[in-house]
Design goal:
Elements: H1 15-18, E1 37-38, E2 44-46, E3 49-50, H2 51-58, E4 62-66, H3 67-84, E5 89-94, H4 101-109, E6 113-116, H5 119-127, E7 135-137, H6 144-153, E8 156-159, H7 162-173, E9 191-196, H8 225-233, E10 238-244, H9 255-272, E11 280-282, H10 300-318, E12 324-327, H11 331-334, E13 338-350, E14 354-359, H12 368-372, E15 378-380, E16 390-395, E17 404-411, E18 419-423, E19 443-448, E20 451-456, H13 461-465
Parallel strand pairs: 4-19, 5-6, 5-12, 6-7, 7-8, 8-9, 9-10, 10-11, 11-12, 14-16
Antiparallel strand pairs: 1-2, 2-3, 4-13, 13-14, 13-18, 15-18, 16-17, 19-20
This protein binds pyridoxal-5'-phosphate (PLP).
Pyridoxal-5'-phosphate binds at residues 94, 97, 115, 138, 211, 246, 249, 284-287, 328-332, 427.
Amino acid sequence: MVSTHPVEVQPSGNQYLSQRRSVTTSPNQELLPLSAKVNHHDSLEIGGCDVTTLVQQFGSPLYILDEQTLRTACQQYRDTFKQYYKGESQVLYASKAWNCLAVCAIVASEGLGIDVVSGGELYTALEAGVSPEKIYLHGNNKSRDELILAIESGCTIVVDNWYELHTLVEVADRKIGSDSLPTTPPPHHPIRIMLRLTPGIECHTHEYIRTGHLDSKFGFDPNDLEEVFAFVSKQPDLNCVGLHAHIGSQIFERQPHRDLAAVMVQWLRDAAKYNLELTELNVGGGLGIKYIESDDPPSIAEWSKAICEVVQEACAAENLPLPKLLCEPGRSLIATACVTAYTIGSAKTIPDIRTYVTIDGGMSDNPRPITYQSVYRAVVANKMSASLTETVTLAGKHCESGDILIKNAQLPKTEPGDILVVMGTGAYNYSMASNYNRLPRPAAVLVANGEANLILQRESYQDIIRQDCLPERLK
Ligand code: PLP
């Protein structure tokens, strides 16, 4: 007899692939990297590489970066700005999301510039071969040496506050003594700067990653704007080319960015009163990504189009020429491109309360859950079509009760040795990783067309003690 009841299909890890919109989708609207597949061993494959084989080869935890997803996101930003903006545009990658040589080289090869927030990030971008004309240095307390490195390399400095403005004037004037001061006049003169302003726009996002409201440590107070313009306009050593603002991160609404762009165009108009010809406008980053099923961010194209339109409308209304338009996304460029693979170890069931399943990493390779209560989804890479029959708490291995990666994760029945894959870990994971409990930082591989290349070596115990010094009298 044929049953008339529909067969109830238990969800499995495959659901994250079958929910995919299309292959031309916006990476920030997906949970898994664009190249993800399930192979005939029922294993997750990324960039044509079996994840379980990658773990055997490179160890775990392992960051696995899908080149196709990263390049697609770069191309979507770049092409949408080209398509919708009638003036010049430049997309920058906010490299704080993940700064290393390979990532800088990939985004630069797609024509993107890079924003950096420290001497270390700047040095990495330069070593990766990124052209200094496409590098912008941020930071609310840049050291004198960081400023000098930026000046000597010829990148643009996004000035954050009065202290920095005065320091720059002094450095340019070569009045201050520093061992690292160049002996010859800086090769790039006058120094190319932008001004960062706090736009006073609030976003519905986590408080600690909200930077745009007036109570922010970043940027000049817009109430000081006229004074800043007046000061900058009198500095022959500074070439102020434009304005910058950033309102926050993991934002799903388009309106705050529209409001921001409109406010910034008015500031451009105000600058003209001081004979400052500002030709660049940087609206920051902030577009969110899908970490869990209910997250529904606009696509990269929708967000970019909205920005282009509002800047054009506001400039037309103010009768201003179109500035060169810059934006600097981080998360939405790289988060979905990477997953972290872990090996499952111990488990502990507390009757009527919960089951803890432990992996071989945790808050040291992904500090976002403990810092921001961020949520993630995971699959078991070697059991992709197994039914999700268990609800478990995925715990890290750190000596910290709060080291929980995912609460109430829906997984198939797991056993030690299974490979757990956490999705959406490309942004603010490696870059915020630590050696807490003296865990060596994981390796990272770049995968494409069935090939895996190491882009970050796994740290060793020798690396862990490399900076330690043992005074003679303690030996
Ligand atoms: N620009 C600045 C100044 C930032 O502070 C940040 C992140 O906080 C970004 C860009 C990148 O933001 P997101 O990764 O949300 O795109």
